[in-house]
Task: structure prediction
Amino acid sequence: MTPAAGPRAVVAVDIALCTVRDGALHVLVGQTRTGPFAGWWTLPGGLVRRDETLDDAAARELSAQTGIRDVYLEQLYTFGHPARDPQGRVVSVAYVGLVPPERLDDVRAGDKYAQVAWRPVADLPALAYDHASVVATAVERLRGKVAYTNLVYALLPPAFTLGELQSMYEAVLGRTLDRRNFRKKLLSLGLLKPLGRTRRGPHRPAALYGFRRRRPMVVEIL
Amino acid sequence: MTPAAGPRAVVAVDIALCTVRDGALHVLVGQTRTGPFAGWWTLPGGLVRRDETLDDAAARELSAQTGIRDVYLEQLYTFGHPARDPQGRVVSVAYVGLVPPERLDDVRAGDKYAQVAWRPVADLPALAYDHASVVATAVERLRGKVAYTNLVYALLPPAFTLGELQSMYEAVLGRTLDRRNFRKKLLSLGLLKPLGRTRRGPHRPAALYGFRRRRPMVVEIL
DNA sequence: ACAAAAGTGTTGGATTTACACCCATGA
DNA sequence: TCATGGGTGTAAATCCAACACTTTTGT
Result:
């Protein structure tokens, strides 16, 4: 470990920013404006600066390229195949991000992108680099983690119905859950606080709930 | 993501090579011979070469510095605080490695180290860089993962008794388990094959078992 | 004989699953 | 009135936790 002498590599971060929309997991992709992958879709990301942490770099790039700030971000995996970038050795530290639905439309394309778009993970366009693997790894991580953490709080608005909460789990897990058992379990965990308000619609009004604590905790949910 | 232009960082790998000895988790550390941390204990690791994958780099450095080859290795987390190395920007991709006890004595110090030693994770010497965090993260990962995978196969010799298997779980998890329930559960999972031999000692001979499949699988164990 | 670990079943409680009907609203 | 989702309880099955005595060997 003698930094002065060794071969150098560029370190980048890439972010798989996820959300659930219309009952399906989506990820944010941007259409690159220039460079060898001009016209291709990629995950937001970019080079790590000399004086910032990896977490800071992920938040900064995400904000610069998509306008999205202050979301849940966690380091996912580091992709370092020597040929993953045709231009040279780039080691990419991938992150998963989670955005609640009320902020989906805050996204705007930064300089690097002609456009950004939410795409269902089940129907992605061809992605540049190894970004398809990044998305696959992110989905795997989410699937695994929602079952034993309260992570979905980062995918939900401040107030939601139990039906919406259940749809969230179903979308991430890709399977349906029994409604009565789901309610019993979640209410028994004490993670939620009833807000005393209701959501109205073309049906019986539904009680609204919020998370008692909006920060990551491990709790056996399913 | 324009590799040609950006600021450069050095990419390294560090390996927390773990084993269970005398009923306790141990990690392999080496006493650095030269450089600014001469005399300090560090985890084996080193710079990633231009043309190798991260996994290859981890295996190569481990083999070069400790003589240990062909062990279970999995990527753990990437540490990139700008000040983690006093000499410059080094982003380190950390790995966890697992070695079975019959290979503990294959370790020999490579050129970089004056000596290498197995130390209990509960009683580590001061480690250079952020290697204490790496070990802590590795232990956390192992604790979490043994409960829902068959990972312990990588910590056990080809033949072992159920008692030894149980001690392995107890050492990693840091708690005791009920013997009868443990046996019932593990035998019911069908992960083990009885070898038809026994281990003798100053007590009743114990049946020997091996893992049916020595590769990572997710199985709910505890 | 003794020490040390191996081997072995049952029971009660808790948890999980499966399952069907009525309710309140907006259109 | 109809369509839509909200709200609710029970019984069976399964899983999990707790628990003690006998066996075989080496010394």
Observations:
- Chain A has two domains: 10-134, 148-211.
